């Protein structure tokens, strides 16, 4: 398996687990929630950089005359929707921050809908992520098998014939 695929899979798994932890902010405390999700944004940036070739290729195809997206349309639209939603999550999170922003001396006033927007955009992201994972399920399964399931070395079986005519008794 290529080194890039191995890195991609481990990063995707880590990001997925971190996302699930982030969805329950009260269990580890708000401070952990905030620092963890900022790190999570970093892993998403790496995720996008590792898939940069795909992003450039599909965007070029979108603007090239006569060329279609060849089945990548759903992925492309969904990826953009997740990107925009991800920005909303981070922005609303920063606006209601109780740890990261105060630690930098910035205290933002409590205002109307940021909390609601934070909650709504994270729920929407869950939905998008479910689809994103489903669309890449074949890749996840085949790459995991190659990474985690060890190949059983087969010992060659030597079959000896007992009634060979060239062997003198
Ligand atoms: C918890 C977060 C995420 C997980 C677990 C995840 C998982 C995956 C997996 C398994 C793949 C296929 C293998 C690979 O290239 O790594 C993939 C591809 C991709 N993901 Fe994600 N992803 C996540 C978040 C995102 C977000 C937020 C975006 C967009 C902003 C995104 C954009 C892409 C792109 C552009 C590709 C390659 C093109 C494609 O086939 O769709 N991913 N992702
Ligand atoms: C991937 C990114 C994030 C996810 C998935 C996420 C998820 C969540 C969820 C599910 C809640 C509970 C909402 C509710 O009770 O209705 C929450 C609350 C909260 N989040 Fe995030 N969040 C993220 C990023 C951030 C960031 C970057 C910050 C700030 C820097 C932040 C600050 C907060 C705060 C302060 C609360 C508590 C609000 C309250 O007191 O009820 N979050 N987050």
Relevant terms:
single chain, about 170 residues, mainly alpha, 8 helices, about 70% helix, about 0% strand, globular, binds protoporphyrin IX containing FE
Overall description:
The chain is mostly helical. The protein has one domain. The protein has 8 helices and no strands. Helix 1 packs antiparallel against helix 3 and helix 5 packs antiparallel against helix 7. The longest helix is centred in the middle third of the chain and has 23 residues. The chain is globular, with a radius of gyration of 25 Å. It starts with a helix and ends in a 21-residue tail after the last helix. The mean pLDDT is 89. One protoporphyrin IX containing FE (HEM) binds next to helix 1, helix 3, helix 4, helix 5 and helix 7. The site of one protoporphyrin IX containing FE has 21 residues, from helix 1, helix 3, helix 4, helix 5 and helix 7.
Question: How can the largest sheet be summarized?
Answer: none
Question: Taking all residues together, what is the mean pLDDT?
Answer: 89
Rg from Cα: 25 Å
| Helix count from the secondary structure assignment | 8
Ligands (ions, cofactors included): protoporphyrin IX containing FE
In short:
The chain has eight helices and no strands.
Write the layout of secondary structure elements.
Elements lengths: L2 H20 L2 H4 L1 H21 L1 H12 L9 H23 L4 H4 L10 H22 L1 H12 L21
Helix pairs in contact: 1-3, 5-7
The chain binds protoporphyrin IX containing FE (HEM) (2 copies).
The site of one protoporphyrin IX containing FE (HEM) has 22 residues, from α1, α3, α5 and α7.
